[in-house]
Amino acid sequence: MTESRRRQPPGLNGPISWKFLTQSPLTFINGLAEQYGPVARFDVAWYRYHVLSHPDHVLRVLQERAGNYTKETHDYWLMKQIMGTSLLTGDGNLWKQRRRLIQPLFQRRQLEHMAIQTVAATDAMLERWLKQTRDGAPLEMVSELVQLTLRVVGRTLFSTDLVDEAPAVGTAVHSINELANWNWKTLVAMIPVLNYPYQRASGVLNQLIQSLVTARKSDLEPSGDLLTALVQARDEETGQPLTDIEIRNEAMTLMLAGHDTTAHHLAWTMILLAQHPQVMEKWQAELQTVLGDCPPTLADLPRLSYTRMIVEESMRLYPPVWAIPRAVTEDDELSGYHIPAGSYVLLAIYHLQRDPQWWTNPNEFRPERFDRAIEPAPRPGAYAPFGWGPRTCVGAQFATAESQVILARLGQRCQWKLVPGQQIVPEGLITLMPRNGVRMQVQPRV
Predict the structure, then answer these.
(1) Contact 32, 51 (CB under 8 A)
(2) What is 3-444's CATH number?
């Protein structure tokens, strides 16, 4: 082994205080990257972690040597207890097979169905908002948007309104997210089978999804939702369908992963627009020119170019998946430092997308930086809110289109402002969320 491969990265010595680590994982991880550079190490009990914050590391871990960086981490272990083995939690040949089978499901027909359902769900939410806020009462926007995106994923995935028809689902999803967030805070897997709220929440979701799968398989006139597509999917190499358990796992994954990230991304986008009236004014002009009073459709999205830039820029500043963990199976070398097998890496996406090495005025909200007629594309790996390469999130296009449709409809029908005096602090758990939520006053757009 060469001297460079034995070179240890800089970082913190000794076990890290639990209290210090759990107070703010985002501040802790970001601080290590700022203090020690592109590779920084720290220990939690007997676990060794490496914080990686260079674009080349994204390419190395998620593309060039993806097989060496697996999902055998504590948080993915917990996800498996909830979602089972699925595209999100799987690795190796199973991941390739599921990716090959599920990727075609997100075709244009499904995106068109999603856009229609999204507008309907957003309009229903807006009617309730505008009734509730006639007296100026504020809304807690994060919880409102979580309800909205859960409704959208229910209608798109199952043709079922999860919020109205299965009220316990929202509570179950919240309980599972709380458990997952606790696990991420501590970076140590807990035993969810001993956790009663987990058992109850998981049972509610399992029962619901299994009943929907059973009904869909016997439906003589199936709908055009994603659950139908999962039931009808066949592997292009083997011709085999998914089993009931595999359908359940993928449906559970799409439901849980498909609404929480989008809700928090939308919350950050609304915050940024409220804080930047000039951007809001320019955006409103685009909505009026392209849409007028007509609801947005999938066909409108290419013409809503500034809306897309806003979505991409807010995702740069506040990526829902702010860090990507992986387990190291074989020794490697990154930036001249030895990365031993058996350790873990954390791709620091939040830090990377605000690094002044790769971004001009990185903390400024400027959607025009994503106008390719004005500025070149960022360095490969410097912008990775959905991962990278073959490991890019299979639902990235779906989630981006959903965000654009919801945002456009909100912008057409209402205006909002932040309630004065509140502190908006990013909290990095499973997703990047505003700590303690965010309160907004909403009014109809005249």
Answers:
(1) yes
(2) 1.10.630.10
Residue 319 CB burial class (10 angstroms; 0-12, 13-18, ≥19):
buried
Pairs from 14-18 (Cβ < 8 Å, separation ≥ 24): 14/43, 15/43, 15/44, 15/45, 16/42, 16/43, 16/44, 18/186
Enter the tokens of residue 333.
């070398």
CB atoms within 10 A of CB 401: 22
| Greatest distance between any 2 Cα atoms in the chain | 71
**What is the identity of the amino acid at 131?**
K
Q: How far are the Cα atoms of 93, 153, 222, 341 from residue 100, in angstroms, in the given order? A: 10, 22, 23, 29
pLDDT per residue as tens digits for the range 373-413: 999 999 999 999 999 988 899 889 999 999 999 999 999 99
Distance of CA 101 to the CA centre of its chain: 21
In sequence order, what E strands does 89-199 have?
A: 139-140
Residue 389 sits at φ, ψ, to 5 deg, of 60, -140
Q: Where are the alpha helices (DSSP H) in 276-304?
A: 277-290
Amino acid sitting at position 92 = G
Is residue 391 within 8 A of residue 62, CB to CB? The reply is yes
3 state DSSP class of 68: helix
Domain boundary assignment for the chain:
3-444
User: Taking the complete model, does pTM exceed 0.90, yes or no?
Assistant: yes
Distance CA 335, CA 330 (A): 16
Instruction: Give the separation between CA 61 and CA 140, rounded to whole angstroms.
Output: 38
- The residue among 345, 351, 348, 350 whose CA lies nearest residue 333 is 345
Q: Hey, what are 442's tokens?
A: 């909403």
The residues, ordered by sequence, that sit 6+ positions from 229 with a Cβ below 8 Å of its Cβ are 105, 110
User: Rounded distance, CA 167 to CA 161, Å?
Assistant: 9
- Show the DSSP H helices in 218-302 as ranges: 226-232, 244-275, 277-290
As a whole number of angstroms, the distance between CA 38 and CA 48 comes to 16
- Distance between CA atoms of 72 and 50, rounded to whole angstroms? 15
Average pLDDT per 10 consecutive residues for the chain, totaling 446 residues = 67 69 80 94 87 97 95 83 85 87 84 93 92 86 91 86 67 68 58 59 79 78 78 83 88 84 95 97 97 96 98 97 95 96 96 96 97 93 94 90 97 95 89 91 88
Q: What's the token pair of residue 141?
A: 């926007």
Strand order in the sheet with 69-70: 11-15, 39-44, 47-52, 344-347, 324-328, 69-70
Q: Is 437 left (phi over 0), alpha (psi -120 to 50) or beta?
A: left
Structure tokens at 428: 């990095």
